[in-house]
Structure formats: structure tokens, C-alpha cells
Sequence to fold (834 residues):
Amino acid sequence: MLDWWLPENVSTYGRDIDWLFHLIYYITGITAILVFATMLAFLVMYKDRPGRRARYTHGNTTLEIVWTVVPSLILVILTFLSAPAWSKIKIQAPPASDVVVQVTAKQFNWQVTYPGADGTFGTADDKTHLDEMHVPVNKVVHVRLRSQDVIHSFFVPQFRMKQDAVPGREIVQWFEATKPGKYELPCAELCGFGHSGMRGWIYVHTPDDYQKWAAENLTAAVAPAAADEKKSEETKPAPPAAAKGGKAKR
Amino acid sequence: MSAITGTAHAHTAHEHHELGFVRTYIFSTDHKMISRQFLFLGLLMMILGGVLALIVRWQLAWPETAVPGLGSILKETGGILEPSTYNMAFTMHATIMIFFVVMPILAGSFGNFCIPLMIGARDMAFPFLNMLSFWVTATAGVIMLTGFFVEGGHAAAGWTSYVPLSAVTAYTGVNWGQNIWCISLFIMGVGSMMGSINYITTIINMRAPGMHLFRMPLVVWSLFITAVLLLLALPVLTSGVAMLLFDRTLGTSWFRPSGGGEPLLWQHLFWYFGHPEVYILILPAMGIASEILPVFSRKPIFGYHAMAFSMIGIAFLSWIVYGHHMFVSGMNPSLGMAFMVSTMIIAVPSAIKTFNWLGTLWGGRIQFKVPMLFALGFVSMFVIGGLSGIFMASTPVDIYIQDTYFIVAHIHYVVFGGSIFGAFAAIYFWFPKMFGRMTNPALGHLHFWGTFIFFNWVFFPMHIIGVGGQMRRIYNPMQYEFLQHQQHWNVFMTYGALLLGAAQILFAINFLWSLFAGRKAPLNPWNSTTLEWTAASPPPHLNWGPTLPTVYRGPYEYSDPEAADDYLPQSQPPARAGARARGH
Fold:
């Protein structure tokens, strides 16, 4: 049965989303069962039989009020229950970050950039990995999401996280993973012929492993990394017109 | 009003018998002929849209294997779809189904057929404009088809054609295909404007004596509201595609960030049109169900006013919910909160309608004729489609299910389970009046059960794989480790899709056979009360003889205990003596 359901959740706010999902699942499931049971019962009970006349009625105001007010109430309650999670995930300033990464989507890769030893982006010691993100477990990670060509969507099913990357702006998202492991990072917005298969991996490490990885990959000597980046710069396809929009706004 | 009917009369006198073949069958201004033309256009396009759907399904079940029958078209690959071809297939499937199947059949064909006949008018207010509306739409359809033959293939950026993907040729490799897509939809938008202005004018000005607004059949109400939405929503798309075309060909930068444009502007324009569009697709089907359920329950519709007002409510709300397509688009998330509220609220009128449909069945004398089966199918599938919408309305849940197969399931339950089931119900219900012949009930039953069972077989599991995380518009689910365990569902669904397609062959046989060899239809085969059943089958040019029917009561007077028959036609005078003598 497990493979009929949501993938395992490994993020903090994923719990809120799953809780709401289940709540709506039960509300709509019960509603559907009641409606279909009523409908089937009517179809059987009121099947045309000789000698019986249909009930002559044009409606019932009390019933109309009841079935207007009850669904309205349920939906209003659902709205109020949904609002805090939405606010927490998307509206409020994200919790203070432990790790900041910049993800620049392009056809058809995720370019994941770390600020390097100096902690600032746009300097020579920035480290960029292709389709690979490494983060520590139980830490708040900020993702500065950009796109250099078309709209992509940063989707991590196990984190219940999704955000479109829009060329011309930077959108900051956050997550906190709760379990070490290797998670897929597909693109969820059609972005061209290579859309399918545009996929990265997020490695969630234990604190020790993360330190080890960071020591090897983020604070290593500047020179080879810079050369590395230059190379990756060159292999990029001819930057479409959109590329320079990457630094606009915010 | 009298001036208009007066002119129509004058026309009868000298024009009626002199129309040649071309004016009768091709450039006809008769709303019934235009209705049939729209129906044939929609049904022909449905074959293409359906085949494209099967191609998409084949690829999803057995990725990168040769699609049977495509070997001769895709010669280089031997029938195997490439990702770009796959993108083109689902883009054109949706484009064709929405703009050239559902809209022509529901709004175009049944709008044209039902409005004058059910309000007691001789024709549309502007018959020439009506003819133009069809030919403009058909031209748009032909232009759309040419896109398959240009270099680079047809549009492949999804039916939503999000920019900048659709705005810059280099991103997709599609050049003229996307331009043709824009041009075709622009022209289609003009045609739809002509139709909608005609419908609105006709309903407001040309109702028969006694046909008050609240004596109008609900299908006319639904078409009236649809026409208002068409009039106000389609021009937004029309301008949007024009701007997109200018970005692509003239170097403007409405949407391209490189020139200072804003990609999200396209989404705002598209969905500002797109959400009313969803109701344009479903409202006529709601009207059709509201028409058919009373006839085959032999009961008045439950809550006529609630039904009319809930449709009006949907129409108003449909303008302020569109942002729910954009919760994770980068739109200001505080706006997401507002759109969540409005989206939750728009579920209420749909709930009201569903309960009133159930109320109509309650205590009825239910006859399971083919139109009734499709109307019941519509109600039950719409319930599923409506309820699954609540998941998306809740913004946090939408973060997860946006762009997954859950959305694909939802839209198909609404547009196939809703609109297409409604269209089939309407075709079986009005076929006798439209073509003067009855359809074959046995084939109709088989068609219904085939469609109903295989529809659910195909589309229900989409909820499951969507919850499992499968993204929409991906070429090959097997490229993702987290999706591989549910691939068997994709295979299962594709078998269902093939069977669903096969079931439609029954419909084609029934339709064509009945058209030429069906039993001659009586005047009123379903013992229905509305005005169209008082005209001959099929109705002649200008619909009725010298005098138009007069309306004495509401449209759903079934099983009135004081009436001798179990139905009282709208045009039957209340006086006992005159009632029987009148007319037929």
C-alpha cells in the first residue's frame, strides 16, 4: 500500500502539508462516499416503475440554505487551517539560515553555487556544482533560486517543496531536511525538449559528513576551483538573451 | 424585438425556397445548420485530439518504443517519439481538445441549436455574423492544423505556452509552429467574440412572448452566462497571443526578460482568461445536465433559482480565482492567500448545483435512457473533479501537487468527465431534433458503459501517481528513481486509454448510421416540456410556422398532479379546452 501514497516526508514543513493533505483527503473522501451513496440509493429507489408518479416539488428553501452554509463553513475552516502553513513556508521571512546556496536553473541543469570560504556570492572562491546539492541535516537551508533561460520549477518531492525559477528575478526559498539521504530534484515546469530528465540530487548529510564534504569541496584552494568554474562557464550553451536578466530585482 | 422578428418574417417570404446548395449547407445563416457545422468540426477534431492523447499515453507506458502506426510518419525514428515530438503531442492534444472540440461542440453547436429554439426565436439576432463566426473558427482550425507540417514541428510549449519558453525559438526549436499556434488562437478568439455577442443579444432581445428570464431553461441560462464569459475572457487571450507573436516576430519584449519584459505577465494574462475558460467549458454541460435530469426523472428541477444564481455566482467568482494556477509561480505569496479564499468559495456554488441535481432525482421516476446515463455520468464525474479541486485550493497542499498528475486527473475529470460527458448527453438528447432521426439505444448504452468504465480506468489512477509525485509533461517517468515503482500504473492507464478510444468507435458508428438510417424521430420523443420540441424534427428554416409559440409557464413542469399528462409543455395554454386542440 505504501507505494500508493505520498513519498516519505523528510522536511520540517512537509509535516504541515501532509497533515492538510490528509485532512482534505478525509473530508473529500467522506463527501464523495455520501454523495455517491445517496445518488445510487435514489437511482435504485426511484427507478421508473409502472403506476408510480414522480413527486411534484420545485425545491426546498431550508435545504438550499443548509447545503449552502455547511460547505461554506467547511471551506472557510479549511482556509483558516491552510493559511498558517502557507504563511510559514512562503510569506514570512525564512528562518535564519545555516547554509545558503544559489541555484541557477538552465536548460537542462541545476547549477548549485556555494559562496566558498568568504561567505559571499559573486567572488572568485564561489564553488559551482552541476545537478548536485549537499546540505546538512536538521539545518535551515536557503535556496536563492534563479533561472538563466526559461521558467523551471525546483521540486523536491520528499521535502514537499516546489518553487518556479523565473528568469529576471531571484526567489529565496528555504527547507530543513530531517533525515540524511539522497533525494531527487526534478524540474516540474515544462522547460523544453530536455525537461524530462532534468534532474539533480540533494545529498542530506549528517553534521560530520557535511563538515567533511565542505572541507573537501568548499574551502579547498581557490585556483583549481576558479579554473573549474571558468570551464563550466564555457561549456554553457550560448547564453540566450535572458541570461543577463539574472541579476535584476530584489 | 418585434422589428427583428418582423424582418425575419419578411425574409421567409422571398428567401425561404430559393436557397441553393451553398447557402443551405455551406455558407448558411440558419442557426441549426451552423450548429451542425460546429458539431461536425468538433467531432472531427476530437478524432485528432484523441489520437494525440493515445500517442502520449503510449509513450508514458512503454517509453521510447515505436508507436504503432507512426512508423510511416516519423520515418527517421521508426515511430519512436522524440522528446520534442512528445511535447508537441501533448501541447496539441490539449489545444485541440479545448479550443476546437469542447468549445465548438458545447458553446458553438449547442449554443446555436438551443438558444433560438428554446427561447422561441426564429434565428439568431445576427444570422450573418453567426455564419461568419463558424467560418472564422473553422479557418482558425485549419490554420492550426497547418502547424503540423512546418519545419521544426508544431507548438511544443504546452497549451499554456509559458514564456519565455514559447517566446524564443531557440528554447524549443519550434519556430513557425508556435507562430501558427498564436495566429490560429487569435483568429479563433475573433470568431468566439462574434458568437458570444450574438448569443447575448439573442437571449436578451428575442425571447418569445411570455418567456421571462426566469422561465428560461437552465441550459439557456448556462449558455447566456457562458457567452458573457466568452465575451469578456477570450479577448484577453487574443491580446495575449498577439503580444506573444509580436515578441516572437517583431522583437517586442512584453514577456522576455532580456528586453525588460516580465514572464509572469503572460501567466497573469493567460490565466485571467484561462480560469473563466474552464467555466466556459463546464457551464454549458451543467446546463445540459440540468435539462436532461428533470426530463428523465419526470420531475421539476430542484431549486431552479438556486441553479440559475449559482451559475451567476460561478461566473462572477471565476474572475477572481485565476491566481490559484500560479501559487508557486513566483507571484507574490500574499496574493496566494487571497486566491485561496476565493478558490475555496467558488466550490460552494458547484456544491449547491450537485445537491440540487441529487434533489431532482429524489422521488423521481427515473428512466435510464442514454442521454440520462451520460447526464448522471456527468454529475458523478463532476463530483470527483470538483472535490479534487479542493486539494489545489489549499495553498500548502498545492505546493506539492502543482504540476503533478493529480492536476492532470483533476482537469480530465472536469473537462472529459464533465464537459465531454455533457456533450455526449446533449448529442443523444437533441439528435432527434437536430437530424430528425433517433439514435440506436443499444449502441448508445454500450457507448456509455464503455466510456464511463474506461474513463475512470484511465483517469482515476492519475490521482494516485500524482500523489506519488509524477510530474506532468515528462517524457519518460522511468528517468526518475522515485517514480519507477509506480510505472505499472502508467501501463495500466494506457490499456484503459486504448479501450476508451475503442469505445468511441461505437459512438461514431451510431452517429453516422443514425444520421442516414435512424428511425424517424417523432416531434417530442422524450415527452419534454421545452419549446424546441414543438417545432418539427428537424425544424425548418425559421423554426416555426407563421406564429411563434407563446410561453405560459416554467420549463420543468413534470408530474404536476393537476395535469392529465405527466408533463405540461411551456407553450400549452392553461385553459383546458384550447390545450389539446393547439398545434400538433
